[in-house]
Amino acid sequence: MSIGTNIKFLREERKLTQEQVADVLGITFQAVSSWERDEYKPDTDKLIKLAELFGVSVSAIVEEKQKVFKTKETIYNWEHMKTYVKTSAKNFKLTNTLKAIDYAVEAHEGQKRKRSSVPYIYHPLNLACHALSMEIIDDEVIATCMLHDVLEDCGKSLEDLPVSDEIKELVRLMTHEKVDDSNRDKMLNAYYDELSKNPKAALVKCLDRCNNLTTMSWGLSRERIYRMIKETEEYYPKLINVLKRTPEYNNAYWLLQYQMESMLDIYKRLM
């Protein structure tokens, strides 16, 4: 596939018109059309802007693709995951988790993961399944996995949550206030510092980051991916060390660290 073919494929995949691409780049739609016909090639600065617009690496635009892989947005059906978590909660008598599952499914109803058609509930269920697969049978941890985004994304309050005060506190710790360039460092330092004081909150946050890293290739722009890599490298070693010092999380800490570092290395190489 030529550069022009790659540009056309990525543009159409994101349901953008030539005019929309041209507006973002500050050029005419005829220029975009000439690129797609391989009459001309975009300059380096335009290639970088195209990569940012499409949320891909520059190499994804300029390299000739001899083979195209079919990708998946999800691996498991979310309803099957819900059944697994519910069955586990019943078997191990995780009473808060049973309440949290139904509450989270209702709270996130109609929401989708960024830039996809994937139901949002797939994300908290993935965290819960991840924890259970590592034999973390803890009602507070699994319930927090299910509820960790309902305050931030669903407009719920702590008083709304049908769970114990301990879980409400964990959900509060997980809830991230909006940040911008003027207060980002200050807010993130305070946020991760508070998380690091609670091993269960640190565990759920590491599970959350692992899942977000696995989906950011199609859910985030190139700029957001870069920011996610930097944030993970800066703040997550501290949380991993909290897990390392917590005897019941010894196996989990190693697996979570391995997954995070492996994903970061892959993204760095591809970017």
Q: Shape, please?
A: elongated
Number of helices, counting only DSSP H or I runs of 4 residues or more? 15
Output the structural class.
mainly alpha
- The CATH homologous superfamily of the largest domain is called Hypothetical protein af1432
Query: What share of residues are in beta strands?
Result: under 5%
What name does the CATH topology of the largest domain carry?
Hypothetical protein af1432
CATH C-level class of the largest domain is Mainly Alpha
Runs in which pLDDT lies below 50 for 5 or more consecutive residues are none
Mean pLDDT across residues: 92
Helix content: 55-70%
Terminal-residue CA separation:
20 Å
CATH architecture of the largest domain: Orthogonal Bundle
- The Rg value, from CA coordinates, equals 21 Å
Largest pleated sheet: none
Number of strands: 0
- In sequence order, what are the helices and strands, one letter per element? HHHHHHHHHHHHHHH
Domain count: the total is: 2
Descriptive key words:
Hypothetical protein af1432, 271 residues, mainly alpha, 434 Repressor (Amino-terminal Domain), 0% strand, elongated, single chain
